[in-house]
From TrEMBL:
Keywords of this entry: Acyltransferase, Transferase
Protein name: GNAT family N-acetyltransferase
InterPro entries: Acyl_CoA_acyltransferase, Bact_Acetyltransf, GNAT_dom
Segments forming domain N-acetyltransferase: 16-170
Spans traversing the lipid bilayer: none
Cross-referenced SUPFAM superfamilies: Acyl-CoA N-acyltransferases (Nat)
Amino acid sequence: MTTHSEHRTPTLSWTVTPEPFTTGDATALRRAYYAEVAGRYWKRQVTETEIDQGLLDFPDDGLVPPTGQFVVGRLDGEPLACGGIRLLDPLTAELTRVYVDRRARGTGGGAALLKVLEAEARALGADRVRLDTRSDLVEARALYARHGYAEIPAYSSGPYAQHWFEKRLT
């Protein structure tokens, strides 16, 4: 007689909702995002002072209606992801600050963020979404490609823009 033990993984549930980028959870996530992208770029741990300066240098004030939106993703209630969308022009929105905590990567958080951010872009009147990212952010580039974003010629310039993507929403 053979016995089998069944091993089930609990189902994880993401909720992604608009939230002001100034709330405690949103601020903590924006700081974590900046710490990771700056740390990877500089190849070292980033100081709290550098995070403070980075948030001042790259403000999120466009991520509020009617020009944009910020969202927080929660995995079983814990805030572990965030992202923003802002209008570049009346028909073009741009993704920014897309971040999933390392502990939650591979659980569908990136897909959940994109779904809600694309819906927010449509609500703002956009028919396409663009973004720029860096070469070293390989997880982000793979996420965008998996969800229908195609590389396009540069539409912006900046020290951290090395790849540009676009997705039509219509």
